[in-house]
Specification:
alpha+beta; globular
């Protein structure tokens, strides 16, 4: 009987144990976006973008395309001028598995664009972006 109770307790706890991550918060998304920007500055634009992109990540070029297919073979240039950005506003879905970030970007110290990125929790618990889009701001 004790063995049956122990098995029942393990089975009841299994769904809770299967979820190893807390629901995503806006702060989690902001931290991921800042880490993405810092990593990209360190390793170069193409390598940084590829590192934080989910396998099915989409960009517009001008039509929607898979980031990894679009960036295949693209070298990553390190050093100035740098692409820099940071989130002004972030949010997370109530489902706890997706979020968004948006804010300005600068290239070589000059305003270049305003971005909108959708982030998704990955099977390993980390965050990767699945959509990165933006608009150029021109000479502001």
């Amino acid at each position: 009987m004790r063995a049956l109770i122990a098995v029942a307790a393990l089975l009841a706890a299994a769904p809770a144990a299967a979820r190893t991550t807390d629901p995503l918060s806006a702060e989690d998304v902001a931290a991921a976006e800042r880490a993405f920007a810092a990593h990209t500055r360190e390793v170069g634009i193409a390598d940084g973008i590829r590192a934080y992109a989910a396998p099915d990540a989409v960009i517009f070029n001008p039509d929607p395309v898979n980031l990894h297919e679009s960036f295949a073979g693209r070298p990553s240039r390190k050093g100035p001028p740098h692409l820099e950005w940071g989130p002004l506003w972030t949010g997370a879905a109530r489902s706890g598995d997706m979020g968004f970030s948006t804010g300005p970007a600068w290239f070589g110290g000059r305003p270049s664009s305003f971005y909108f990125t959708i982030w998704k929790r990955q099977p390993d618990g980390g965050l990767k972006w699945v959509l990165d889009a933006g608009i150029e701001v021109g000479d502001a």
